[in-house]
Amino acid sequence: MNLRAAAIAVLVPLLCAAPRNARGTDWDPRVQGAIQRVARAADADGHARALAALADLEAAGRARLVRQLFLFGEAARDTRDAMVFGALVERYGWTADEVVGPLVPLLDGADAERRAALARVFAHYEGRTLTDAADFTVFRPHLAGGANEAVVRHVVEADPASAVALLSGALPVDPTRARELASDAAALDRTLRAAWFGAGGRDAAPDAAGAAALARLAAGEHWWARLAAARAAREGKGLAAAATIDLLDADPHPFVREAARRVTRR
């Protein structure tokens, strides 16, 4: 199995991890019915006819179909329905941009359950592994012209160090400060990996460079840098102390407060 096929195979059960009632203003009954006919076709001929009808919908509006497939999978209560999303991504050969782009608007105003479902899909286009940092290139177009707060929260939650590296270059930041943030992002990445894999474990204090980077991020003028510090603090008591997590608990930005309180109130 090639890497793409492996990734799609992993996508198959993801959206049924937490079934929910996805119906709402985004729900399109006509498209949902067409997707359901693909999922529930009784025989090969019925499946072929359902796929042909869905292909017409894909040609008429790929982005809408991608969103409806996500919502269908989000509401799935069995593996057969959950398989449709990954199977059709593979069938149509959609690129990362063609999958991620239409789903980004669903982050706006999303509750934690939906953000988690979206994150499980996005993870397959971010390249993060135990040894490799995330690559958030696919989100750059959605940061043009300023901070899309929902996208910023997603990337910080997924990988705070890689997020700071991305945001310091993608958002309007003083060039000198951008270089400092990039350096802090590299130090944070090393610190997080030491917490995950180092002999001292997650509760060990970070080294001097890591502690200084966390302190600067936590005290920074950019809310997303403070958010990264609060997110990193979740990875161990030593990191929480270095990030002055108690101060972030009272941060003016609601996303930072929410992230900090996941540490201080657990």
Can you give a write-up of this model?
- The termini are far apart.
- The chain folds into two domains: 3-106, no CATH class; 160-264.
- α1 runs antiparallel to α5.
- Residues 1-10 and 12-19 have low confidence and may be disordered.
- It is elongated, with a radius of gyration of 20 Å.
- By secondary structure, it is mainly alpha-helical.
- 37% of the residues are buried.
- It is 64% helix and 0% strand.
- It has 15 helices and no strands.
Describe the SSE topology.
Elements: H1 3-11, H2 29-40, H3 44-60, H4 62-74, H5 79-92, H6 96-103, H7 112-122, H8 149-158, H9 160-170, H10 175-197, H11 208-218, H12 223-233, H13 237-242, H14 245-248, H15 254-264
Helix pairs in contact: 1-5, 2-3, 2-4, 2-5, 3-4, 4-5, 4-6, 8-9, 8-12, 9-10, 9-12, 10-11, 11-12, 12-15
Keywords, separated by commas or semicolons:
single chain, 266 residues, mainly alpha, 15 helices, 64% helix, elongated, disordered N terminus
